[in-house]
Amino acid sequence: MKLTVLGSGTLKSPADRNPPGYLLQAGDSLILLDVGPGIIHQLRTLSSDILAVNLILITHFHPDHCSDLIALLLARFLARHDSNHALHLVGPLGFREWFHGQAQWQGKWLHGAMPQVTEWQGRELYVDGWRVLAERTLHTENSLAYRIEREGKRVFFSGDTDYQQSLIPLAMESDLALVECSLPEHLKQVGHLTPKETGIFARQAKVKHLLVTHIYPENDTPDLKKRVADFFDGRITIAEDLMEIEL
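Given the sequence above, the corresponding structure tokens read:
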């Protein structure tokens, strides 16, 4: 299994940090975790086969996490007209209404080959060999964190969240945990994690490899890893766009 960082930053970040998106691959099967603006460009940079993506997980409806979704569906349609029939989209409560609100402005290119749209209902999902679990986060009313399993490997993706004990079981002993680390301690915002909180969460969840991501410019300093490591003594990687991590 391999994870590629498509976007490790935010809408405020410089050009070397795209807004959020991650590509998870096992064999010929691909998953996208969020599809913020610029994710299609990043996939093109990697020469990734967008038709090989069979599952997209959306954490919440803020545009920096989902604005490339409809464009990606159109890109797939242009490559092969029926390609979206086999695509599974999963998102939080309200996802169907949100998606169909976007789709109503599109033509028959989309309505003639709609993807399968699933709202998370608190039950595990199985899609093409992937096992997916989720838990609500303290960011928006219905935002989600995910745990994705395949071939004995476990990947945790926090999405945007504040510190919360209820996410620890979902992240427990993950082989790789993608955890947001938005702002430094003195700029703490409700709904986001600081380096201290990211480190404490990783320690409590006993994650095997912590990938620190969703980094605002104010937090993007050479000592970021050390500030997280003060609270977590495991393996830490600061995410960079187009970085690849083998599990």
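The chain has a mean pLDDT of 97. Try to locate this feature in the token string yourself.
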